[in-house]
Every structure is written in C-alpha cells, then in structure tokens.
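ugh ok fine here u go
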Amino acid sequence: MLITSILGPVLTAQFATKLPLPKTREDEENRNIESTLDEWLPQLKNEIKNDHFTVLIPIYNPYTQRDLIEMGALLAKKESGIIVPVSIAAAHVHMDDPQVDGNLKQSQILLDRAIEISQEFEVSAQPIIRIDDDAAQGISRSAKEKNANLIIMGWSENTGLKARLFGTILDTVFWSSHCPVAVMRLLDHPVNLRRILVPIKNLSQATLETIKFAQLFADSNQGIITLLHICDRQTPQEQITEFKTTLSKLITEYELSKECKIKMIIHDSPSQVIIRASHQFDLVVLRSFRRRTAGGLAVSDITTEVLKKIELFFSFIWTTSFMILS
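structure:
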C-alpha cells in the first residue's frame, strides 16, 4: 500500500501523457480526419442550395437594429441573397384589442427602418410582421417558413429571475431553430470589423462550418482570420506539429480562406488565452454546440467560461465585439 501510494503519482506523471486517449463519441467523429474531410467539405461548399441565401433578423430593439441589419446585409450581399427582418407583435386573446394595433404599428416602424438600412447596402429585404404569443417560437417558425440559412440576433444581458428559471429568448431560439444562429454583441459597426479571431478546439465538421462562416464575413468585409488553437502543457510536441500541419493543409487544399493565419499557444486555461488574445482583434467568433437535453440547451464548457468572463468585463474593460455561432 505504501509503495503504491508513493510510486503511483510518479509513474502517472511520467507515462500518462504517452497513453492513447480513450475513444469518446467526439473522437469517433474526428477520427480518420483525412478521409472524412473529403466527405464534409463538398457538403460545406454546396450546403446552400436555396434560390436565395436568406438571413432572418429579428428586430425588437431600435438601438441595436442597425448593426444587426448591417451584418446581415454584408453576409447576404456576398452570397447574392436577401435579408428577412421580422418583428414579433405580441398576441392578445381579443385581436380587436387596441394594444394589438399598437404593437403592429410599432413593428411596422421598425421594419420600415430596416428596409432603409438594407437599401444602403443594395440588398433586397422581405420584411414580415408575425403575431405570436411566444417571441422565440415566432422567430424559429418564421425562419422555417422562409427556409432561412441563418438567424442573426443581438446579445441579451437579461439575467433576472425569470430568465434563470425559464431561459431567455436566445436560449429557446438556439434550442428550437432548424438553421445556424449567430448571436452577437457588436461594439463597432460591422464594416469596421476586419481582424477576426476564431478559437478552434479540434478538426471536426463543426470547426469547418465555423471557419466557413468566418470566411463568409471576412470575404464580405476584406477581413483577415486568425485561427487560434490552445494546447495544454502535457500535449506532445509531435501532436501539436501534426495538428498545425493538418490544419494548414486543410486551409490550402480547400481554400477555406485566402487571408488566414494559424496561431498555436500552449496553456492550461483556454478561456484565459482567448480573453487575452481578443484585445488584438475586432471580432471573436465562438462556437456553441447544441446538445438538446432534458434541462435545455447545453453549450461547450470553454465557450461558457469565456462568456462568463465576457459578462464580467462588459461594464468596464471589454473592448472586443464577439459572435457566438450555434
């Protein structure tokens, strides 16, 4: 017993890092990366087969709607697509209630402004007003009805009791939507966001989709993408080199981005690295993995930790815009 307790930690520290990692479900998805990339990437290149690339943008805050419309217009224009501004007017038991008419009038004002902004970017807009007793479901249903390729929403800082008990509109849209959802908090106009940071954990289909989305925005805005991969201190050097080589080959072979840099950092706290590195960029694109559980939507641990720190820094030192792609 004494010998085991003494030698155990020593042997573990020396040999544990050399042992093969157990195969998890995520590993199964990422194995044979060279062969599966050939299957994934053609799908990514041809995934948009609608008549128009459609970006649905819920409008509810007149102070933030310009940046959201501007972002959607940049992406839609790059793909020769359209934007669909949608305003959800709260329903009422009696549809002849004056409050319903007031809600519809306010929605129309917001949509008229959205059309004006879209015209500045020479992008077609198809605004809709939806009467619904659930704003989140109204957004998800509108996106499905319009066969939207992307939903763009603003970041919500609602942390009240109701939000903690029942979740926010963002939580519900993330959980129920059929297409990717981009949630953003922009501290500058989208046309000024050119230095883009994309933290990546591994080479998976989700990673490729995130890079493709960042590329779409970078191409529409003459931006430069930096892919950031953080390794812990126990990662063998040959594994780090192999990852960087494979990623470089992926970028070159499939032309994921013409202006793309790779940065590898060894550190035990990925969230701290992302926070520190973000100050050198205009926009950080984070990935949220949709895992539908009985308790709702679960996001990746690193993204959650970064968001907690972002919330902490918002009021005084946070100076970088960010986007979460689900």
